[in-house]
Each structure stands twice: as structure tokens, then as C-alpha cells.
Amino acid sequence: MSLSNLLNNWAALRETRPYEDQYKNSDYKWGMVVDLDACTGCNACTTACYAENNLPVVGKETFAKGQVMHWLRIERYWGDGEQLPEFPEQGAQFLPMMCQQCEAAPCEVVCPVGATHHTPDGLNSQVYNRCIGSRYCSANCPYKVRYFNWANYPEKAWPNPLEMQLNPDVTVRTKGVMEKCTFCVQRLTEAKNVARTQGRKVADGEVTTACAQACPASAISFGNLADPTSEVAKIWKQQQVKLAKDHQDKEEGARGYRIFEELRTYPSVLYLERVRDNEV
Amino acid sequence: MSSYSNISRRDFLRVLGLSGAAATLAGCGKTSIESGQETVQSFVQPEDFVVPGIGVYYASTCTQCVSRCGVMGRVREGRLLKLEGNPQSVISRGKICALGQATVQAQYNPDRITSPLMRQGGALVPISWEKANQILNDQLGSASRLSGKQIAFLTGEVGGHQSVLLNNFLETFHSNHHVVYDPLSTAVGRSASQVVYGVDQPLLEIDKARMILSFGNDFLGVGPSSVHMAGQYARFRKAPRGVLVQIEPRMTITGANADHWYAIKPGTEGVFALGVAHALVQHSAYSNGVPAEVISALKAYDKETVSAITGVRAETIPHLAGMLWERSPSLVLSGYGAESHANGQQNAASILLLNLILGNQNKTLTGQAKQPFPQLLPSQGSYKAFANLNNEMSAGNIKALLLFDTNPVFTSPGFMPFAKNLSAVPFKVAFATQLNETSNECDLVLPLLSPLEDFGTHVASYQPQGIELGIQQPLMTQLYPQTRSFGDIMLDLLKLRGVSEYKNFPNYYAYIQTALIKSKPVFKSGLNDQEFWEDALSKGSLRLDVGPSTLSPKPNAVSIAKPKEEAADLILPFHFVPSVRADWRDGTHTNLPWLQESPDTLTTVAWDSWVEIHPSTAEQMQIVEGDVLEIKSSAGSIKAMAYLFPGIHPDTISMPLGQGHTAYGRYADGIGVNPFKIIAPVYDEKTGELAMHATRVSIRKTGERGRLTKDEGATNLQQGRKLVAMVSPDQVNLSKEISHVVK
Amino acid sequence: MNSLFHRQCATFTMIFFAFFLYCATAFSEPFVPGGDIGSQTENGFNSLGPVVEQPIEFPHNVHAGQLGINCMYCHTYARRAPVAGIPRLNKCIGCHQWVASVKDKPRIQQLMEYWDKKEAIPWKKVHDLPDFVRFNHERHIQRFVFQENRPAKEACGYCHGDVANMVTARRVKALSMGWCVSCHQKDHPISATNSKTTNGPNDCWQCHK
Predict the structure, then answer these.
(1) CB neighbours of B70 closer than 8 A, spacing ≥ 6?
(2) Could you please report the per-residue DSSP string of chain C?
(3) For residue range C150-188, what is the model confidence (pLDDT) as tens digits?
(4) All chains having 3 or more CB pairs closer than 8 angstroms to chain C
(5) Are the CB atoms for B224 and B464 separated by under 8 Å?
(6) For the segment A13-34, what is each residue's pLDDT rounded down to a tens digit?
(7) Burial of B101 (C-beta count, 10 Å sphere; 0-12/13-18/19+)
(8) Min Cα separation C84/chain B (Å)
(9) B726–A87 CB contact, under 8 Å
(10) What is the pLDDT of residue B737?
């Protein structure tokens, strides 16, 4: 690959997508809404993700090194400032963070072997077979939602008969490959398959991710942004957040926002601000 | 290194094992394009809806906590993969918590018992069921002379038909010695609720409240029905928006979600509530229904006095009273922390009194629907009954002890010497899926089916809407041929004891089926017996749509006494709060790897115990994170690393319950320490329950320092980055939002 | 100290490199798409798989060939699930409990033994794709049989070969990724900027789990 080729392609990528109404004529563009006001931080979603996607339990030592494999994690903050408050009078703030399936993903462009791409239905794909473990993608990810298999976890993570719990629709990864949240692509593929045979598109609410299905407070919504009648599309529109803009012009009182929008990653996950009464 | 010799580029990824009992065993081999290595999923006579490659969902009821949520399991080729909430259950509404998800790991736990075990020469050795039955016959058969108190059945909060059989079994010995030990007993709260409302537990209409004032009630965490209540809470936050104020010594998950959180001195919650009551009754609107003697007793609780006792700023009291005036209907909740002191019941009653003054009854507090099957309700645990059993054991009065769904050697307070008293009992039988500290000490251990392999019936003690009789059914055939259903074993024991009415039931399934079909008229079903049964199984429950009952509170019954001044303790200066995680509970579930790996919501610590200490206190004592501290009470001492935690009263420290196992499998053993062992013998004055939050401790730096395994990384501050953006309610228009469906 | 350290580094590096070469050569196998490569045809290259011994020597030539039974009668899940599936035991019994002419044949007796014990026959996989591949039979059958109205023999035979003339099934096509992609690319050439969702077959995630 020549240098000029590289630079040309880079320019093309940044100009080609995302663009206004990119998915207008597409069948699917998967998106998510996370209501931070409803999220209680209970970790039901993270456990559901472990169950659905064959995530290995790495154990204490590996966890302590920061090599835990949770594709979806709950981050807990105290306040929004620079200083730890004496008492967290407004409680804690919980942020469920998973792969944002960025439209202009910083991870996609730096993979030396092309193991990560953007699918036609708007997901950031990770192909384990191609991955050689350079870890450039996780270095580039501003959300730090890419997880590397530092060891051969299948050796110890599933002593018999725990391996019977493994989901056959999801690969079990071994040492040396990068992995991340896939928006439960195995469920999406299954739903699209059923719909296609019946000659229709996947209806809103027909398919959902494991985390959205589990959440007791219904804080996570998942759906098809290309379908204007879907719940997530309606919420995105109502919150006046456009997929292909890095700076939103919206009215006060719309509490939808995306994280690190200024980095121009164009994420597919919309967060709704946590509402807390200061007067109280 | 040896694995490399077999790996080609295509072998890069492997899938381990497959099949359940109904299908053929599959090979665990290479994954190149190959032929003749693996076997195909092969069926004999599957149902029509079983299609290879597509999961089938079967309904059941989760048994991991008292909520008894309806769940459904995804089964592929006869093998259970994952649980989801059952949308047809009114309790779970299609949602599920982390503990529910982790039940599959209890099912497939590598440390499950797979055959009966007998004590021989100090160790437990595997025996056949024939031998086990022989032992049961010798000890508990028709020739047994045991009667009355001599035989005891110690369990957790078991209900449904299991409990019916269990009690019938005891009756054959002219005994009603069924002792229920819940280490996280809600007996004090129930007693206070009886005093004030006339019911054990009212229904909390969380989504109808405009304001919730919670004194440490952890409805989003521990319960009493946290999955359902999280949904109610989400609706509570939608327009018209409700406000949550939490007052507690140590921040719970519910407190973390409050609009305002107040730290309060442990045990003084009742005084604070009376301070708010004092402010409220100044207004005639709120003093109308209140008896004169209560109003005059409240006079002593002016805001300065209350502030001095509780440590909360005096202005807070009229502020909160004002808010309660404005935001009606409100809901005032008492919590486990407030109830777990020597004046616990008094605290709780004072807190619940606020609801009466505010007129919340039958608005946000209603009575639960009338139970059509009270005999199926779980018996509620109490410490007192457990302590009596302990005394009987130490006096040598217990000749036979049966244990089910309980681990008292682990959960009993250290001062009890329960393990020692247990060894005095000549015959001890444990029914268990996995060995724990208690069953390890028994003479006979009978291996049970996991909850996902068994039948059962469950009526949760907290029914959020109508009555839901949850049906538990196997989600796959049993993994281990030697394990048996608790219900089946009890039926056999009843037949052994010569109880004729059970002769016609070949197994527990037949018994439940008959019993439920007999109950058809109660559920007003027009279906024939077979249809009724199949419909119940496919839905996972039987439902009765009845409305809540009316609450008739008794304000006269509330008496207010000034709490005793707590002497400053110089030797044990700190209050000790043993915190309860929603997924670990009393430690029954720390044998599940997902729950050990799941970082604690508030501290993000995993795979360990920790001591939560306020940063200002830590600075005074020159304690930094990771310092190994010795926490010593009058009953014992334990050591763990310090974690600086702003959500705690500066005079209080807290440690999580559930760790410190020594004989509970590879995922629990040797991890952390067990705070149950340092709980001091302090009891609630009114009910005699163990006051779990009344322990005083001293802190000593051991000089060692380690590093806590945690998820939060270097910082827990947003530092101006817009991560979790917060906005005040006047800046948003929630009623304009498309309320995304809260199920 | 300095030079000793550098010498130690150099030694270590050489040992490491030598070891790396050793591993790379000794343990890497040349990629062979499953067996000996046969002749090239317009369907892609043939590649003969090994003979697979089955618990019962099921004669496809009798059933699919002589009797002309449609592939999908037995392999019923092919049109409605990602996995084509082996017929359930009671499907075999469904016919064979009535067919008197072969009742005493040894293979039928073997079959009946399994049925009497209600034991699943441990058929061996003949067309076994790696576990990280998601191959969806339903989509292929829906397209070629139901949409394009090709006869089952042609649609199934494209990948599985002339099963009607085999005794026990044997893999005769490569089934490698390149072989699959060669068909997928015919009507859907890969393009860097094409975002049409019907470009499904060329998306990595369509087939890689």
C-alpha cells in the first residue's frame, strides 16, 4: 500500500461518511439510546452481556492488571467536577459504556490487516480471524471499549460443565485477538433471517440486545435508526441529535447527547442526561 | 506451549463442548474444514417446535431471592444457555437482574455435588442412594422415636409446596420445629409495619409518588422486589417527575440514585423522622388525624435537638418537611439499616408514622392483595427462632437436624458458636446442590437438582400486582443422574413415615400437578384440566387479577420514646455497617464467577472484601487506599484493605457481606473475609432480633498495604468531560419526551 | 557491565529469533483446503473430503437416487433454519416401520435397535465448517429453491455434490472461504463506498461470528 494511496483513502473515508441521510434508503442502521436518568447502576446488563457473548471470567489477578473483559461496563462517577465532594449529595452517576459503533470509527482506519470494518447496517465489525493482535485499534479508541485477549482464557474460564453455558452463535475467542461489543450481532442476524424469509423487514421491538432486554429499569433502548417509526429513531429525532453531525444545534431542554462528539467519531449511541433536582 | 503443536492458522479458535443429555455428545475438536470429526446434533423424537439452530424458550420461576421473578430460559438442542425475564410475569415484566442471569452458573457449577455423601472418619465420602436411603430409614424411618423439638428442620425462606411437604413431614414426628433463618431478616421492619399499618408489608406504589423519603431503604438493590421496583422507579422518574431523598449512614445503590443524599449517624434515623414529623404537625392540615399524645410527644423533637443527635444540619428538617408538603402524594420508607439497631423497631415505627401524618395510606401505600393460598407463602425468617434452636442444640435437645437452603455456619454471628453446637447434634442431614461450610459438617448430604432442573411452586411474599403463583419447571434434563428433587426426597420421606395420602403420587411433579389442577376454581379458569396445566406451564405462572386491599393504619398504636443516649465508646469508636449487595445477599451467591467478576456498583471493587472509610476519617488516621486494616469488635476481628468512600458517615465504616467463604467452591474460597463473624450481640428491644448495624469497632492499621482489584482505574471524577451529564428538572421538559416504554 | 549487558541482550534476541523461526516453520502447516485438490470446474474447484464412516451406512443412492425422495423431505430444517439438520430418528421410523421389504436387512435392524432404545444415532459431520463461521442454509435454500425455482437436487448439489449417487455422504467441494466468496462476488462485487444493505454476503460479519 503506497503512502499516496493511504492518504487518498483516508481523505475519502473522512469525506465519504458519515453524511446527512446516509441511511435514509438503507434497511437497517442499528442505534441505541441509554437513559442515564433511569440507570441505577445495578450491573444486570453487564452480566447479561457475559452470558450472551461468551465473555471469559478472567479472575482476580488478571482483573487487577486491568485486563477484565467486560464489553459493557458501568462507570461510576462522583459529581461532574474536578474535586471529590465531601459527601456525594447528588448521589453517584452511572455510565453504561459499550462500543459506540462509531460511524467514523477511529479503530477502523488503523487496523493493519483490516480486521475491523463498518457493516452496511451501521455496525463496527470485528473479525477475529483477521486480527493479529497489534492492538492499534484499542489505542485509538477514545472510549476504551476494545478488549484484548491477553491470555488463552478458554483454558481456564470454563471448567466442565461450565462450557455448556456457551452460546453457540458466538465465537469463543482465544489469545491474541481483539474483541468488543457487537450490539449482539448474532441476534440481529437471526432476526433479519426470519424477517427475510417472511419477505419483510425486522419490526421495531422484534430484536433487542442482551443488555437492553435485561435492564430492569428499561434504561437501554435498541432499534433501527433507518426506520423512522422505531422507538430509537423517534427519540433521536425528538432529542434533535443527528447521526452525521459532530455538533448539534438543539433547543434547551433536549437531554440527548453523545459522548466525545467533539472528537468526530459520530457514535451510534445516544445518552439522555441524568435529571437531578438541585433544589432538593 | 504444548497446544501450539496442534494449531494451524484455521485452528485459531475453538468451541468447547456442546450437547445436553437429550442429544448426542459432540466432539471437541479442531475447526478446520474437516469431515468426520464432530458429531451432528441428532434427535430422536423432538417436539415440533424444536428446530436445530433456533433456541426455544421455556418459562420458569427464579429462586435466587425472595422476589420470585418469572424467567424464561433459552434452550438450544436440549441445553440451557441463558435466562431472560419472562414478559408474562407481572413481577419481572420481562426483565432480570444480575443474580438471575448468574443462575445458569449455579446450574453448571463445576463444584456441584453429584452423589450422596456420608461422613466417614472425619470426611465426606460418596455413597449410593441405596445406602443413603437406608441411613434415612434408620434415623428417620417409621421406627424412629423422635418427637417434638428433638427433630428440627432449619431452612431459608422456603415456600410453595416444598414447605407444605416439609411441614407435613415434621408433623409425623408431632413436631412443628421448622426454623427459618434469614440472616438478613426483615422481622423488625415487619413488626413496625404491623404496629403502624396493621400489615407485615404494604405495597409500595413507587411510581405514583411525587417524592420518596427513604431512610436507607434499598428498594433498587436488595428488594423486596428489586426488578419490579426498578421498573416502577423508572416510571417514577418520568413526568410528572418524582424526587428521591435518601438518608442513611452508608450509601446504598438506591441512595446513589437519589436527588439528594444525606449522611446520618447510624441508629438515629427514627429521631430524624420525628423531627420531620414535628415540623409537619405545625400545620393543621397534617395534625388532623394524629392523636394528641403523639403530637405532644413530638414537641421534644425540635430541629436543633434532632440535629444534635443525628448530625444532619438543622435546616434540612424544615426543608424536607416543606418538600413533603408540596409534593403529594409522597412515600416515606424505612430501611434495613434503620431497623438494625437496639431501637430498630422504634426507628422504623417513627419513620412509618410520617406516612400516616402525610396521609399516604391508600395512595402510595396500599395493602397487598388477599392471598388465596396462605400455606404456600414462605415462612419469614427470624433471628430469635434461630437463636432458640442454637440454645436447644447446645443443651443437647436436638437429636436430628435437617438443613435446606441455608448456611448457618457461615452466616451465624461469631459469638454464637453455631458450628460447635452443630457438632453436638447426633444426626445432621443437608440437602444441597453444592457443599458449603454447613453441609461440610453434616453426617449425610443429599445432592439436589439445581433450581433450573426442578419443579416447584412459589408465591413471593411481596406481590406487586395481584397474585402470581410462580411455577418452576426444569429447563433441561438433569446434568447428574444421581441428583434428586427436594420435593421428591420429601415425598419419599413422607411415604417412609407411612403417610398414606402421598401414596398415589409417584413423584413431586405429579403432586404439584394434582394440587394446582385442584386450585383451578380459584383462578377462575374455564379450561379443562390438561389445558389449564399446560397453559400454566407455558406462562410460568398462575395469575389472579385482584386489586390491592385497603390499609387501615393504627396511629394510636405508635408510641414515641426518646432514644437512650448512646455513650461515646472510646475503645470501639466506629459504627460498623455490614452492607448487602443485591447479587451476593448473605453470601449464598459468591460461588458464581460472574458475580465475583462483577465490580461492586459503588466501589467498583471485584474479587475481594474491602473496608469503606470516609476520606476525611482516612486522612485523620493516615490511611490510604489499600492499607490493610484490622476491624475489631467485641465479638471478633477481621482484616481487609481500605477503600476511601465519600458516601459514608465519617464515624462509620462498612464492609460487604458475602465473602470469606472457606468451603464453598473454587470461586468463593479464600476470597475476602466474613463480617458476620464480628457482629456484636446487640438486639432490637422490641422484637429480640439481632441488630446487625449496632456493632461498634475499632480500626487498626496493620502496616501492610496491598492493591485493591477494582474497575474504576485512576479516576472516579468526570473532570469536566461530559460523560454523565446532569441537568436539573426545570431545564428539561419530560412530559414532551416520548417516554420510551418502561415495561 | 555495559558490554556484558549488551551481549546478553544480543544473545537473548538471537535465541528468541531462532526459536521464533523454529516455531514458524515446524508448527505451521501449509493451508490445504481439505484434502487433495481435484479438477477445476465452473462451479469452483472440487476437493474430495475423506470417506466418513457413519454408525449406520445410510445409502443416499437408494433414498435420493432410486426412490427420488426430495432432499428437503428428510433435511427439513434446511429451508427454515440456519442449520440444515439430520432427520430426527422418528422420521426414519415413519417410513421404515411400514416398509416390509427391507425390515430384516442389517442396516434397518441397526436402525430399529436405536429406536427401541430411543437413542440418538451419533451421525458424524461430513460438511463441517469451522465454528467461527455462520453459514445459513435457510437463506440459500430460500433463494435458490423458492425464489429462483431451481430443483432441490441442483441447489443442494452445488455444495454437496451428486449425493443421489453416493452411498454415505462425502464432501466433494472445497467449502473454503474463497470458494464461497467466489459465488457471492458474482452479483455483488465489493466496493469501498457501497452502503447498500443488500450487499449482505460480502460483509465480514455476515459469515464470521
Answers:
(1) B59, B60, B61, B62, B85, B86, B88, B89, B90, B91, B92, B468, B470, B540, B541
(2) -HHHHHHHHHHHHHHHHHHHHHHHHHS-----SSS-EEEEETTEEEEPPPP---SS---HIIIIIIS---HHHHSGGGGTSSS--PPPHHHHHHHHTT-GGGTTSHHHHHHHHHHHHT----PBPSSB--TTB---HHHHHIIIIIIS---HHHHHHHHH--GGG-SS----B---HHHHHHHHHHHS---TT---GGGGGGSHHHHB-
(3) 998 888 988 888 899 889 898 888 788 877 877 777 776
(4) A, B
(5) no
(6) 666 678 888 898 889 999 999 9
(7) buried
(8) 8
(9) no
(10) 85
Residues of B within 8 A of A88 (CB-CB) are: 251, 256, 261, 646-647
B-chain residues near A161 (CB < 8 A): 17, 108, 110, 479
Q: Does C113 touch chain B (CB under 8 A)?
A: no
Instruction: Give, in degrees to the nearest 5, the angle at Cα B126 between B125 and B129.
Output: 135
Residue A263 lies in a domain: yes
B449 or A8: which leads in pLDDT: B449
**8 Å CB contact of C83 and B46:** no
What's the rounded Cα separation, in Å, for the pair B375 and B395?
Answer: 32
| Interface check C143 vs A, CB under 8 A | no
Q: What does residue B690 show for φ and ψ, rounded to 5 degrees?
A: -65, 130
Has residue A16 been placed in a domain? no
Grid cell digits, residue B240: 410528572
The CATH number that applies at residue A160 is: 3.30.70.20
Yes or no, beta carbons of A166 and B17 under 8 Å apart: yes
Query: Quick one: which of B404, B373, B383 has its CA closest to B166?
Result: B404
**Cα–Cα distance for residue pair C183/C153, rounded to 1 Å:** 18
Residue A18 maps to a domain: no
Domains of chain B: 1-37 (no CATH), 46-108+461-481+519-550 (2.20.25.90), 109-182+381-448+483-503 (3.40.50.740), 194-366 (3.40.228.10), 574-705 (2.40.40.20)
Residue C50: pLDDT band with limits 50, 70, 90 = confident
Q: Determine, for residues C209 and A119 on separate chains, whether the beta-carbon distance falls below 8 Å.
A: no
Contact A44 B241 (CB under 8 A): no
DSSP B484: B
Query: CA-to-CA distance for A263 and C138, rounded, in angstroms?
Result: 42
CA dihedral B426→B432→B434→B437, nearest 10 degrees, is -40
Nearest residue in chain A measured CA to CA from C130:
A171
CA distance C82 to C102: 34
The CB-side HSE value for C56 (13 A sphere, CA atoms) comes to: 19
A167-205: b or e for each residue (b if 16 or more CB lie within 10 Å)? bbbbbbbbebbbbbbbbbbbbbbbbbbbbbbeeebbebe
Q: How far B107 CA lies from chain A's nearest CA (Å)?
A: 8
The answer to whether C122 and C55 are in contact (CB under 8 A) is yes
Domain that holds residue A92: 28-272
Terminal C-alpha separation, chain C: 53
Whole-structure pTM value:
0.91
User: What's the residue count for chain A?
Assistant: 280
- DSSP calls for B162-194: HHHHHHHHHHTTT---EEE--TT--HHHHHHHH
Question: What is the residue extent of each domain of chain C?
Answer: 26-86+129-185+204-209, 88-122
- pLDDT interval class at A12 (50, 70, 90): low
Let me know how long chain B is.
743
ipTM of the complex: 0.95
Instruction: Count how many domains chain A has.
Output: 1
Torsion of CA B592, B598, B603, B607, to 10 degrees: 50
Whether residue B549 contacts residue B366, with contact meaning beta carbons closer than 8 Å, is answered with: yes
A239-251 per-position pLDDT tens digit: 999 999 988 888 8
pLDDT of B277 above 50: yes
